[in-house]
Amino acid sequence: MKLYLIRHPRPEVKKGLCYGDMDVPLAKGWEEGAHALKQALSITFDGESNACFHSPLSRALRLAEYISDDQSQTVDALKELDFGNWEGLCWQDIPKQEIDTWAGDIVNSAPYGGESLQVVADRVWRWWLSVKDLPMENCVLVAHSGVIKVFVSMLCQWPLEQCHRIDVGFCSVTELSIQGNFVMLKRLGAGDWVSS
Q1: Are 83 and 101 in contact (CB under 8 A)?
Q2: Total number of domains in the chain
Q3: Averaged over 134-154, what is the pLDDT?
């Protein structure tokens, strides 16, 4: 199976805003990049051998529907990390002590009253175990930076506490080849499908 992890397009938010499971609109012109991505993927989705799944948040849903011709399935487990009390605040306005507490144990800590990274990893992995053995040739997930980072870390058996080092740009594609328990990372956070 080829597994494509795609981050949603850039949202229309104030610079430095903390948004996780907060629904935010896409920036104008997002369809141009979506069109290039759809052309580069060149997959005809049928929901079986070629399936597309997406987060319920509109920034992922809109891209998924666009590239799959409305053949994508909503998966709550692919929603971004819930930053709780930090949602909608600018990072510079969050008390440094709270950020330091989180950074001290980024996997298990949630000083903001939302989800920890481990909670996100657990829900994404439970969903993956429920679909990984389906007879899919191409599996496309349209999700969020945090979801993609923890998912790649788990698939590649990398330390979850280091997942923040993975660079996942807007509309980037991470491609993996999966055969049973063998996982090969083909490209990580690539934007090379974009026409110049």
Answers
A1: no
A2: 1
A3: 97
